[in-house]
């Protein structure tokens, strides 16, 4: 059976039309963006922040299914500030040649990011804290970060040293305010920024990016990575806290695939260490919670609180003990990719909790929309989030996930000479969440596959595609009906076939790439038996090599079938995804 490609329809799907924002508020709102580092969403960290609960959760909307697309700092932050997935920014790790600030600059994003767009539209823009990895005391001015009215950036190699951070203030040569707790530096800069912003009639955009609760790295760290250091005033808090003993916490049987499936069970010594590790993470977040309180008070005193949107999120999630994992991130598990997002602001419903999926690529277009700025030619892979709860059109139910390189355990345990490193941690993933079904599907560079029914198995313990669990006649319950597991997997793989190399509209509306007629808008629509042959014969996601970065030649097939139904028949061909812009040999000497 063949499937015909409607090239005119598909060609138009790759074009990104401008969004004219006609519903912007008459006066442009202020925006405060609080970005933590490695904050978990599944071990109770938000519940241990009383000011955040009081001022944001109770006065705003919590997005419980918000995702980062790449579960590590720098690629996630670049996606956040550009609205593009990592396979399009080609910033896929934390250091050159695959990532970091030099890669951000090399790939042209110092002239193409959210703060710059806001500044060009009349906003005063401010940033304090960690921006990107590999933003250092040597390259902070090669070039300076664009787009900020005032700034105070933390710089490597001292970014993760809580009492010995190095900063560059408004582009000046680096200084080391030794002995000052780094989150308190963020608080001081927040006050300075507000002093400046509140004296001007222009709207403002302020990003506050403390390193908490990231591990301590560098000087003072015994094992390369240690639990975060804590402000003296918060030492000793939460002495009875223990990581929730969920079913996926240190399970009796291994889970996952690849190196995860080979992890040994953690002993009591490690479990005790991990509990204290998370206690220290919670303690480190108390200084962040104080910033929330301080900023709210200041905005209220100035009479602008009700004209200000406040976003609270983290670059990626974190695991400790789940799936037998040592502290860290880099996995596609829910602990690593599902991150906090709370929004308060004009018209945002209070005490609202939503399960509608969203991702970091959606935040830049969301902020532009509330600022009343046309999207124009900004090549977003995401779409604005409905923070007001008023959109009548159903939102996409998917989030794309991707990773390249190695996994890292941020722990004293696991290896004699330093933290464990797990090679070949390259994979593509897909998270789908709807009211009656939810899935996580992934294909690793080893071509091992995972499929979890997130409604029946939220801890992701039972890989339905493992050789131990899979039955050729197995079925899965979706919306109260049994469906063949093989057909479900075929449809998820086809959707990921689009997303793994998508651009712009094909990222936001991937079903349209598979079904140009628009007859299929979500996973449930795709379950129709009319499409069984189409999906079983679809090109499958696979890798030809495990790589440390995005090398398209190793990413397997780049084309896929499209379905076009006519008078009771289907014809077809292969649609080749447009060639990606991959910088294989950038000139790093410019930043040496």
TrEMBL record:
Its EC number is 3.1.6.1. It is an enzyme of class 3 (hydrolase). GO terms for molecular function: arylsulfatase activity; glycosaminoglycan binding; N-acetylglucosamine-6-sulfatase activity. It catalyses: an aryl sulfate + H2O = a phenol + sulfate + H(+). PANTHER family: N-ACETYLGLUCOSAMINE-6-SULFATASE FAMILY MEMBER, SD21168P. It comes from the Eukaryota. One of its GO terms (biological process) is phenol-containing compound metabolic process. The modification 3-oxoalanine (Cys) is found at residue 73. Transmembrane segments: none annotated. Residues 1-24 form the signal peptide. Keywords: Glycoprotein, Hydrolase, Signal. This is Arylsulfatase. The conversion to 3-oxoalanine (also known as C-formylglycine, FGly), of a serine or cysteine residue in prokaryotes and of a cysteine residue in eukaryotes, is critical for catalytic activity. Residues 29-373 form the Sulfatase N-terminal domain. It comes from Trichoderma harzianum CBS 226.95. Belongs to the sulfatase family.
